[in-house]
């Protein structure tokens, strides 16, 4: 459980630290990669949540 939490938290920690470190130069490669990681993780999270909600609705309606 601990290792899974660390693996899940590491990309977001990198992204937040990279954006904070390059906030004055938002066009830098580091900032672009960090923002991209944040966006990708948000989209994946939304898709996973959508699938979980749909599965729950199917289970309760059946």
Mind explaining what this structure looks like?
It contains two helices and no strands. The chain has 62 residues and is mainly α. It has one domain (2-61). Helix 1 (2-21) packs across helix 2 (29-61). The protein starts with a helix and ends with a helix. 5% of the residues are buried.
Short description:
By secondary structure, the chain is an all-alpha fold. The protein has helices at 2-21, 29-61.
What coarse outline follows from CA principal-axis ratios? elongated
Q: Give helix % range.
A: over 70%
List unreliable stretches of 5+ residues: none
Radius of gyration: 16 Å
DSSP E strands, number? 0
Structural class: mainly alpha
Q: On the 0-100 scale, what is the average pLDDT?
A: 83
Largest sheet: none
Oligomer: single chain
Distance between the termini: 32 Å
- How are helices and strands ordered from N to C? HH
Number of domain units:
1
Number of helices: 2
Q: Give the DSSP E fraction (strand runs of 2 or more residues).
A: under 5%
Give the helix/strand layout.
Elements: H1 2-21, H2 29-61
Helix pairs in contact: 1-2
Q: What characteristics describe this protein?
A:
0% strand, 62 residues, mainly alpha, 85% helix, 2 helices
